[in-house]
Design goal:
heterodimer, A: 192 residues, mainly beta, two-stranded antiparallel sheet, 12 strands, B: 206 residues, alpha+beta, four-stranded antiparallel β-sheet, three-stranded antiparallel β-sheet, disordered N terminus
């Protein structure tokens, strides 16, 4: 069932005198109306997502945010004595709260450019055999999950500075990087 | 049969004497008659289309003096006396469009009210935008905004507003908080036409 309600003012008029009703018989109405849509890169969209830091653990790929861990320039950090790791250890939980350059907190930042406060959290469709990735609030350290999302992020407020927690328990070591789809959710707090 | 005989009679009269009778012959008549058609803005039309009102009162009637929903205020243009349109291309808070590769839902955009005198079925024509996963939905009775089919033709949860799952509106009734959603990638930027249809439910009604 759809939510339907009787127009209050019509009901009132009908009570006072039926003149207001009953004159408008129509058989069919077909009304064309316009919807205008624009598409923007993550840095300019309703849910604004920005890279943080200059250490190349993130990039903008075709307008959408993407993460590479280890980062593309990991072999340049720390400056003067680079470590160049090949990857995360297995059976471990890592937190990446900054880029390799450590020049700014967070791997990415979330801003709300919509109309209502939103709660932000991440989900991952499939975790079988691949690392489990969860975003966390760098300031509070809290994981942001469906059951425990961020505090409401107001329109134009923030940013919500985030890192990624990566759990490699049961994940086999391999040369090729795992390609994981992380979903960043922003849901209006009043639910409608 | 009766009519055919009458015509035959006229024919014989014409044969009897063209001079006295043939005054009724005509090639063309132009008879101007008046049809008064009032054309109103969407807010005052038979099928009333207005930005969605944020009316949380439960069970009470539709309150057209309630404040606008944030989404209706931002995304719906409804100049007085004009037609309603929806603009999902920017926001006051700085956005210039929808995220790519993101399921997106805009709830609470507009309300439809039947200001006619008969019960009608209201729906949005299927596939208004030729993109997989694009759909329009009406708020579910639960009032939590959560139940909606992304695909307008999928009415599993009963809150679609497609031709296969229209909303029945008695005179004076409103269907509230119609929204737009897409699943996956947004439609290519541009201008699209949605067609809102209201059909009388019983053709035998006067």
């Amino acid at each position: 069932m759809k939510k339907r309600r009787l127009l209050t003012i019509l009901g009132t008029l009908a009570g006072g005198g039926s003149l207001a009703l009953g004159t408008g018989a129509f058989t069919t109405v077909s009304a064309d109306r316009t919807v205008s849509i624009a598409v923007a890169d993550d840095a300019y969209a309703f849910l604004r997502l920005n890279e943080r830091g200059s250490g190349e653990r993130s990039e903008i790929d075709g307008g959408t945010l993407k993460f590479n861990i280890p980062g593309d320039d990991e072999d340049q950090y720390p400056s003067g004595n680079p470590t160049d790791p090949d990857g995360l250890g297995t059976d471990s939980v890592y937190r990446f709260g900054e880029d390799a350059a450590h020049d700014q907190s967070g791997l990415f930042a979330v801003r709300n450019q919509g109309t209502q406060p939103v709660e932000v959290y991440s989900t991952q469709d499939s975790t079988a055999g691949v690392p489990t990735v969860t975003m966390f609030d760098v300031d509070s350290g809290d994981l942001l999950t469906e059951n425990s999302p961020s505090a409401p992020l107001g329109v134009g407020a923030g940013p919500l500075v985030c890192g990624l927690e990566i759990d490699t328990h049961g994940v086999p070591i391999q040369d090729e990087a795992y390609d994981i789809e992380l979903t960043i959710n922003a849901v209006a707090t009043d639910g409608d | 049969m009766q009519r055919r005989k009458f015509i035959a009679g006229l024919g014989s009269l014409a044969a009897a004497g063209a001079a006295g009778i043939g005054t009724g012959a005509f090639t063309t008549v132009e008879a101007d008659r008046t049809v008064n058609v009032g054309v109103a803005g969407d807010a005052n039309a038979f099928l009333k289309l207005v930005p969605a009102r944020d009316d949380d009162s439960s069970g009470a009637g539709y309150n057209q003096n309630a404040p606008l929903h944030e989404n209706a205020e931002e995304y719906v243009d409804a100049s007085p006396g004009g037609t309603l349109s929806i603009d999902l291309s920017q926001t006051d808070s700085g956005a210039t469009g929808a995220n790519k590769s993101a399921d997106t839902k805009f709830a609470n955009l507009f309300d439809i009210i039947n200001q006619g005198s008969q019960t009608v079925e209201v729906y949005v024509e299927d596939d208004p935008v030729d993109v997989d996963g694009f759909g329009m939905f009406a708020e579910g009775q639960e009032d939590d905004g959560s139940a909606y089919p992304v695909d307008a033709t999928n009415a599993d949860d009963g809150s679609g507003i497609s031709s296969g799952d229209p909303v029945t509106l008695d005179p004076g009734m409103a269907v509230e908080n119609i929204g737009i959603a897409w699943d996956g990638s947004p439609p290519t930027g541009g201008s699209y036409t949605i067609t809102i249809v209201a059909d009388r439910t019983d053709a035998s009604q006067p």
